[in-house]
Design brief:
- With about 170 residues, the protein is an alpha/beta fold.
- About 45% of the residues lie in helices and about 20% in strands.
- It has 7 helices and 7 strands; from the N terminus they run H-H-E-E-H-E-H-E-H-E-H-E-E-H.
- A 7-stranded mixed β-sheet has the order 2-1-5-4-3-6-7.
- A hairpin with a 4-residue loop joins strand 1 and strand 2.
- The radius of gyration is 17 Å and the shape is globular.
- The relative contact order is 0.19.
C-alpha cells in the first residue's frame, strides 16, 4: 500500500514539474498584442524575435504590485551582474499612464511593453503564459528558446546561476 502512495506522489510531482517549466511558448501567446513605450502595437512573437541572438530575461510585472517593487533592487543587481543580457519588462498595469509612471519611478532599463487587457493577469496574455503570480521571470537562450518558464522573486539565486551558465 505504501508503494502505491509513493508511486502516486512521484507521478503527481513529475507532472507538476513538467507543467511548470514549459519549453516553448504557445502559438496563442505569440499572437497576443502589446503596446510599446512609443504607443504602437506589437505581438509577443515580434518581441521575442527582436531579442533573438541574446540571452533574454522577461519580467512580467505591474507598478501596483508590492512584490514587484520589492524585487526591483535585485533586478537592478542582476542587470549589473549580467550586462550582456537583454531585459524585457511586460507590464500588467491598469493604464498606459500608470505604466509609464512606474517605469520612470523605478528607473527600469530595458525594453518595455504593456498588456492592455482589462483583466490584467487573468486576461488573454496572462492565460496564454500561465500567469499566476507577478513578478514572473522567463529566461530565453540566444535562440529564443525557453530555459526557465516560471520563476518568481524568491528565485533570484537560481536566475543568476542560469544566466551565468548561458553566457
Amino acid at each position: 500500500m505504501n508503494k502505491i502512495y509513493l508511486l502516486i506522489i512521484v507521478v503527481i510531482t513529475s507532472f507538476g514539474c513538467t507543467n511548470a517549466q514549459k519549453k516553448e511558448f504557445s502559438k496563442d501567446s505569440f499572437s497576443k498584442k502589446m503596446t510599446t513605450a512609443e504607443n504602437t502595437e506589437i505581438t509577443f512573437k515580434e518581441v521575442v524575435k527582436k531579442h533573438q541572438g541574446k540571452v533574454t530575461v522577461i519580467e512580467v510585472w505591474a507598478s501596483w504590485c508590492s512584490d514587484c517593487v520589492k524585487a526591483m533592487p535585485k533586478v537592478k543587481e542582476m542587470q549589473a551582474n549580467h550586462p550582456k543580457v537583454d531585459y524585457v519588462f511586460i507590464s500588467m498595469d491598469k493604464s498606459f499612464d500608470k505604466w509609464h509612471a512606474g517605469i520612470e519611478k523605478h528607473e527600469l532599463k530595458g525594453d518595455h511593453y504593456w498588456v492592455n487587457d482589462e483583466k490584467m493577469m487573468k486576461g488573454e496574455f496572462g492565460k496564454s503564459i500561465d500567469l499566476d503570480w507577478i513578478p514572473r521571470y522567463i529566461i530565453l537562450d540566444k535562440d529564443g528558446k525557453i530555459v526557465t518558464y516560471r520563476a518568481i522573486e524568491t528565485d533570484f539565486e537560481q536566475i543568476n546561476e542560469q544566466l551565468k551558465n548561458l553566457q
